[in-house]
Design a protein that fits this description.
Elements: H1 2-7, E1 16-18, E2 21-25, E3 29-34, E4 40-45, E5 65-66, E6 71-74, E7 78-79, E8 82-83, E9 89-92, E10 99-103, H2 105-109, E11 117-119, E12 124-126, E13 129-137, E14 143-151, E15 157-166
Antiparallel strand pairs: 1-2, 2-3, 3-4, 5-6, 6-9, 7-8, 9-10, 11-13, 12-13, 13-14, 14-15
Length: about 180
Amino acid sequence: VVKQARLGTYLTVVPVLLDDLVVINEGYLLQGLDRYTGRLVWYRDFTESRGPLPRGAVVDLNRIVLTENDAFTILGHAFQGGRDGSGALVRFDPRTGDVRWEVAPAEALATVGYQEVEFAGPPLVVGDRVLVPLRQINSRTETLDFVVAVDSEDGRVVWIRMIASSGRVRNSLGPTFSEL
């Protein structure tokens, strides 16, 4: 663990700046810090979403996407062996940390009958939609990749499209993560 800490292999934070506020997603903890003093302005703890830690190195940097009045991010940590925690897509107020809505990956594909899915990359805001890559690896080790569009106002799933699939293709490092 000491060697990994020195190499920064557990570094999963990419801070974003909003005026005088630094906003951070630490996987289970969202927080806003004063950019000049480092003083904690707000935080939201999602520890109830923790699950078993998957294996492998961290592959997703918990990015936060800012718009004029909102922020969007994925909870938990993405490892080569899968994502831990709830892995939910969250819309929150970046100035106060107030959560406006939360969508779990299973909710996103429930309408088409898929289970055991996870968001496979950071959100992309396009107009009034939040697009997120979504992945399912089934019991036959087939990988199905989707893009899901969520309404930015209420978190309702607007559409889902399968964009790729592969049968029994495995990378020795585990599944990769996508970016739209």
